[in-house]
Specification:
The structure holds 2 protein chains of 2 kinds.
Chain A lengths: L4 H10 L9 E5 L2 E5 L4 H11 L9 E5 L8 H16 L5 E3 L4 H7 L8 E4 L13 E4 L2 H10 L1 E5 L2 E8 L8 H11 L2 H4 L2 E6 L1 H4 L3 H9 L8 E3 L4 H9 L5 H7 L10 E6 L6 E3 L7 E3 L10 E4 L1 H4 L2 H11 L9 E4 L4 H9 L2 H7 L3 E2 L20 E4 L15 E4 L2 H10 L10
Parallel strand pairs in A: 2-3, 2-5, 3-4, 5-6, 8-9, 8-11, 9-10, 14-15, 14-17, 15-16, 17-18
Antiparallel strand pairs in A: 1-7, 12-13
Helix pairs in contact in A: 2-5, 6-9, 10-11, 13-15, 13-16
Chain B lengths: L1 E7 L6 H4 L9 H5 L10 H4 L5 E4 L11 H8 L4 E4 L4 H10 L3 E3 L11 E5 L4 E4 L5 E3 L5 H8 L3 H8 L5
Parallel strand pairs in B: 1-2, 2-3, 3-4
Antiparallel strand pairs in B: 1-5, 5-6, 6-7
The chains are: A alpha/beta, B alpha/beta.
Chain lengths: ~425, ~160
């Protein structure tokens, strides 16, 4: 019987020959990822109440990325607890202040095609860019995984978003996913997998695929998924994953496997998109919002501060300056991103334009670190979410755009079409 | 059976509204005092134990933070009715002992009225008018977990570890 990639992964993880959409199955977890906010500080007291231990510390990865670096005694305590717990639980794979979990995992070759993975964070679908089935869960759910190594879930139906054509200069994966946020009813995506496919997807590198899968969370999907291919294999091999090509070959959906729906889009016809406050669903063509004043431009988060994202911003900012009265803050997704951006000259381009560098971490995107907004301020960000109050004041307004569009707004002091600056 | 006054909000009550990021590092009791303040600063002072929060579509969209459901519980909310729930919030709510009921007609429920809810039967009734709203029932075995106060106390009970 033919099966989608999701069904194949879940069948393998459930120890079943096949599984069908709608079926509730208990699956073994290959990888459980937690961060400092929803992780140890929440699960430690629950594990103690149950007198239970982590089922397999080798399958657990902990990343401190939310309260880093500590900005006060409370965040310092959270990090201290995280470090102590990781040690006592015998978890070797702990990435302390090295960047945001969803980017740290693939940087270190920890997420593979065919994996059944859970993450204590809603942007865990990022792992789907690598052909893994990775879902976000809450802390009590994570407790169950840590104790048993298993989780129950409903096998999701697959909805395929097929992108023909090819992205035009100045247009990126972020624009594709913002378009989907505007067009897709999240109620249609509940308990569904958003599979991204087609020539425009295949043409993307892994960081851009990560941006797409990352924001399937905003579509309301259970997770996102892209079938692995030669681009995936190249990334896996480079990050030290053994048998990368064999893994990719082994984890393909059947071509004739039925899916719930196929939605077709043309990447060639897509221009830059921005999302108006206070929801990614308020996305539309950038042309409708030109001239909107911007106090702060922010390039950061798991969604929009990978090396590729910084390079996009640098293409706009090269030889230009941030507008007076506007500030451009950049928090590279990981410390390795910073290293790479130093080596290839990207960082110098950004700082010469007037960008201010912030530490790697979730920071301003989640309203936690430096770079928050005052009452009435307007920000455009390369992040995933612009919920009311998320980046500081409840009366601040956050717009979302691609790194190109955020950089262009920083230069113009208002929302501007980045294609005119390339 | 749950009976309480309704607090009605619209679509996409997200996790940042329920548990604002700025207070996430604070003790949960303090975080809970800021629940919904960006859309309704008076919510935490008006809400009484046993009250019911009613939402539109995609209630709890966004973060996986369990505190979004926890903050409602700490404010005494006895259940949430919504046209639809974001998946992670839904599981978090049940795991923490907060019944979350999918109710297609939730948008027609007025604020400040008394509602009586039977989660297992999947019925909400407006006490004054008798109007009935059908909801997706919560299976009895899940209600047993919810009734115990969520997954953790339920596991403790079952393992005989209850203090």
């Amino acid at each position: 019987m033919s099966a989608t990639l999701t069904e194949k992964i879940l069948a393998r993880a459930a120890g079943a020959a096949t599984v069908l959409p709608g079926e509730i199955v208990t699956v073994g977890v290959d990888l459980a990822m937690m961060h400092d906010s929803g992780g140890p500080r929440r699960v430690k007291p629950m594990l103690e109440r149950l007198g239970a231990k982590v089922w397999n510390p080798d399958k657990v990865v902990v990343v401190s990325d939310h309260y880093v670096p500590a900005i006060d005694a409370e965040s310092a305590e959270i990090l201290d607890l995280t470090r102590k717990w990781v040690k006592s639980a015998g978890i070797a794979r702990f990435f302390d202040m090295r960047g945001i979990c969803h980017v740290v995992l693939p940087e270190n070759g920890l997420i593979h095609p065919g994996m059944m993975a859970v993450g204590g964070d809603s942007h865990s679908p990022t792992g789907g860019a690598f052909g893994a089935f990775m879902v976000g869960i809450g802390a009590t759910e994570m407790l169950g995984v840590l104790v048993t190594g298993e989780i129950w879930l409903k096998v999701p139906a697959t909805r395929r978003f097929h992108w023909d054509g090819r992205l035009q200069p100045g247009v990126s994966a972020k624009d594709m996913i913002l378009r989907l946020c505007a067009e897709v009813d999240p109620d249609d995506m509940n308990y569904r997998v958003a599979e991204l496919a087609g020539p425009a997807i295949t043409a993307l590198g892994m960081p851009e695929r990560m941006t797409l899968c990352n924001m399937t969370a905003e579509l309301g999907a259970k997770t996102g998924l892209i079938e692995p291919d030669a681009t995936t294999a190249e990334w896996l091999a480079r990050t030290g994953v053994p048998e990368a090509h064999a893994l990719v070959a082994a984890w393909q959906g059947d071509r004739d496997a039925p899916v719930e729906a196929v939605h077709r889009y043309d990447a060639s016809a897509l221009g830059p998109q921005v999302a108006a406050p206070h929801n990614p669903a308020n996305s539309g063509d950038i042309g409708r919002h030109l001239g909107q004043r911007v106090d702060q431009a922010y390039i950061g988060a798991c969604t929009g501060a990978k090396l590729d994202d910084l390079q996009m911003a640098a293409r706009v900012l090269k030889g230009r300056k941030v507008a007076p009265g506007t500030r451009l803050l950049i928090a590279p997704a990981t410390t390795r991103t910073t290293e790479q951006a130093i080596k290839d000259g990207t960082l110098a381009t950004l700082t010469e334009a007037g960008a201010i560098l912030l530490p790697s971490g979730c920071g301003a995107c989640a309203g936690l670190g430096a770079g928050l907004l005052a009452d009435g301020e307007v920000c455009i960000a390369s992040t995933a979410r612009n919920f009311k109050g998320r980046m500081g004041s409840g009366t601040a307004a956050v717009w979302l755009g691609s790194p190109y569009s955020v950089a262009a707004a920083a230069v113009a002091g208002q929302i501007a079409d980045p294609r005119e600056m390339l | 059976m749950i009976a309480g006054l309704t607090h009605v909000y619209g679509d996409r009550i997200d996790t940042d509204l329920l548990a604002p990021g700025a207070y996430m590092k604070k003790p949960i009791a303090e975080l809970a005092r800021h629940c919904l303040e960006a859309v309704d600063p008076k919510f935490v002072t008006r809400v009484k134990p046993g009250d019911i929060v009613v939402g539109g579509s995609q209630f709890g969209a966004g973060s996986s933070r369990e505190q979004a459901a926890y903050a409602l519980l700490l404010n005494g909310v006895a259940c949430v009715l919504a046209v639809s729930f974001a998946r992670i919030f839904y599981r978090n709510a049940l795991n923490l002992g907060l019944p979350a009921l999918t109710c297609p007609t939730a948008r027609e429920i007025a604020p400040g009225i008394e509602l009586s809810v039977d989660p297992v039967a999947g019925v909400a009734i407006e006490v004054a008018t008798g109007r009935r709203h059908d909801c997706e029932p919560i299976p009895p075995h899940l209600m047993a977990m919810i009734g115990a106060g969520g997954l953790l106390p339920y596991l403790e009970q079952r393992s005989g570890r209850t203090p």
